[in-house]
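Open question from group meeting: does this chain pack into something compact, or does most of it stay loose? Before anyone orders reagents, we agreed to write out a predicted structure and look at it together. Recording both the input and the output here so the notebook holds the full record.
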Amino acid sequence: MAPQPVFEVSDLTVLRDNSSPLFSNLSLTLAPGEVLVVRGVSGSGKTTLLKCIAELNLYSKGKLKLHGKESTKWGIPEWRIKVAYIPQRPSLLPGTPLDFLETIRSFSVRLKQKQKAQSDKDGDGNGNGNGQEEGTIDPLDLAQEWGIEKYLWKRDWGTLSGGEGQRIALAIAVGIGGAEVLLLDEPTSAIDDETAQKIEKSLLGMLPSIQGGSHPVNGVRRKGTGPRGLIWITHSAEQADRVGTRTLDLSNL
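Structure tokens returned:
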């Protein structure tokens, strides 16, 4: 029996400024452990698709569901935690990455989520098993695995290289927990291939096994300690082959 999808998109339609469709009636599902690779020529709507899925961009019609519950029923602030978009280039923010991390941790929706996770843990002794709270990783430790020394977190964003900023932003999004679906917009585009493959293995290793299997997928054993699935934009055919379980090519729509 096929597993129930974690995430569903139904009949998503986005119009250009001239009212012609960028894409129309797009539907997809994401099962536990899957990595859906999104590809397509420039201008085909890859980033727009991810931003719509994260409820960051408006769309003409369509429904988004996580565990069968529509985005509007979750509430948009909670949805953006559970279905988290990580941009290709993090915005140049004031202050340091450490300041940014503390600001995110102070958001009321995250504090409520932390309280709920603690309550669940107190109730059954083992937490919720969905990578929330007990599945979190110290973002500084995670980034260090990817070659980011901890002193860099105290430097202003504007002084970091593109690759440093990209790794820190990704480590925050992954390490802080709460996301069940990660929307990755070319997350390693400014990073050398060796480090990119380390990041790939880290992300794949956090996923649950596909259809309950325990065997390695793409050479990586799944631990199920993080998000339930990934939607990943990449222009690299080699990376797509390494990480993807399925591919959606927007050029063909």
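Observations to bring back to the group:
Residues 98 and 203 are 22 Å apart (CA to CA).
The two ends are 29 Å apart (CA to CA).
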